[in-house]
Amino acid sequence: MLALGLLLNIAGIGIFCWLVFVLAVYALPFFVAINAGIWTYHSGAGVLGTPLVAVAAGGMTLALAQIAFAATQSLFVRAVIAAVFALPATFAGYHVVLAMAQIGVPSVAWQEAFACFGAIFIGGTAWTRLTVFTEPQSTEPGRAVSNSSHPVLTATTREG
């Protein structure tokens, strides 16, 4: 039974870490949704209106950022959008890793070191997930979008 408990603990911690890395991109929309929900609740919308406004605000934040990121071809604007999404993920990663380090690491200095490294890794993961898989598309009318990152092999390149 002890071995089963250890395996389940390792699996649980692994799933939790996987969730932290996967959901890091959504830290900014979640933050916006929570703040909009709190503001809505305190302005008198009640229990029924608060979740509607919170979900709408978070969804609009994510949708507008994805549209802006996909529509722009400027690398600077893309970097700014990715940084806006990566910074809350970095802060959230710091606090998650700090909480996990407080469970098993007795030294405060090592807890802070683990939390800083975790923040860097989780923020970097959020940055990478936003920037790596999207390419700016051509906006010229009548021109097909080509993928120039994969060169075509011809007979001359295979022979030589």
Question: How would you characterize the overall build of this protein?
Answer:
- With 160 residues, the protein is mainly α.
- The chain has one domain.
- The N and C termini lie far apart (63 Å).
- Helix 4 (75-104) packs antiparallel against helix 5.
- Helix content is 77%, strand content 0%.
- It is globular and about 50 Å long.
- The protein has helices at residues 2-23, 27-42, 46-71, 75-104, 108-131, 155-159.
Brief descriptors of the model:
160 residues; mainly alpha
Short recap of the structure:
The protein is globular. It has 160 residues and is an all-alpha fold. The protein has helices at 2-23, 27-42, 46-71, 75-104, 108-131, 155-159.
Set down the secondary structure blueprint.
Layout: H1 2-23, H2 27-42, H3 46-71, H4 75-104, H5 108-131, H6 155-159
Helix pairs in contact: 2-3, 4-5
The share of residues in helices is over 70%
Total domain modules? 1
Q: N-to-C terminal Cα separation, in Å?
A: 63 Å
Computed structural class: mainly alpha
Low-confidence stretches: none
Continuous helix count: 6
Based on CA atoms alone, the radius of gyration comes out at: 22 Å
What are the secondary-structure elements, in order, as H or E? HHHHHH
Report the biggest beta sheet as strand number plus sense, adding barrel if it closes: none
Percent of residues in beta strands = under 5%
- Kindly state the number of beta strands: 0
Shape: globular
Average pLDDT confidence is 84
